[in-house]
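Lab notebook: predicted structure, single chain.

Context: the supervisor wants predicted structures on file for every construct in the current expression panel, including those that have not yet been purified. This is the next one on the list. No modifications to the sequence; it matches the entry in the shared construct table.
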Amino acid sequence: MTTQKNTNQAIINQTIVNQTTINQTKQWLEEIIVGMNFCPFAKKELVSDTIHYYVSNQGQTKLALEEVIEQCRYLEQHDEIETSLIIFNKGFKNFDKYLELLDYANDLLADSGYEGIFQLASFHPDYCFEGEDIDDAANYTNRSPYPIIHILREESLERVLNVYKNPEEIPENNIEIAREKGSEFFRKVLARIQHKD
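Prediction complete. Output recorded below exactly as produced.
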């Protein structure tokens, strides 16, 4: 009886943690990604509630990759969902280990027949663009409360890029906005979202 009670409590606790993780991720999307207009296409999906949030407790690459493919299958089976965020609330806090996972995930997409169907985007609390200083505010265009792999439908991405004027200027504009705001601004926002002092 006690064992069952402990198991039930563990499930309840995990559900609460997962929901908190999702809420914090939504707040980051609202305040930074949409609020700063880093992704001009994100607002529509956020408002329409067509983003699937999947919280992963994995820290092992092999198991995390299985979840990436599971989420691709989920999107395949749910046309009403536009995009999926895999949020790692425990593992892959080391940026290099995360990048390694991302490389494997891209290879796995191709091996699983999803190349040209889905595309992966990357976000991480310690994201740093190659060749940039770690404290450069530009990195905050891809910094998030948790390590995230974002699965996008390539067909949808091509469709919105075709109607958006000068899409190639989006990254440059984002970097300019981020640098105007400064690193300290983004540090405070992310700390508040995660309720850190």
